[in-house]
Amino acid sequence: VDFSEIDARLLPTIRKNLEENNISEDRYNIFHTSLFGGLTGKYDFILSNPPYIDPSLNRTEESVRKHEPYVALFGGEKGMEVITEIINQTSSYIEPTGQLWLEHEPEQSALIMELGHKNNFSVTTHKDQYGIERYSILVLQ
Questions:
Q1: What is the domain extent for residue 93?
Q2: Quick check: pTM over 0.85?
């Protein structure tokens, strides 16, 4: 399993979580990089919880804004900047019929569907435990 993290301060947290779940070091790699930078393999699954919040929606709780880095939460215009980059790049890093699981805001579902189709993915959007569209699974065709 490969982990890609842009914020160097979070790398120890990834390692700690892996250790607490008894995952041996020979089963994972941690990369300090942005998205796919430096990665050369092809993957069956890519799971992403990118910064996807649209800052103009102004619905992020103050406690979250105080404790989370801005770059970890807010995804630029409509919250779609990083999501767009991920979808546009994923086909180079995923096996045929590989899956990209992507967390997002409900307002982004249609844009993700459109981008996915343009990049040769089938797209299925799923709801969270509150009935809100929260993530999509994109399968390379």
A1: 41-140
A2: yes
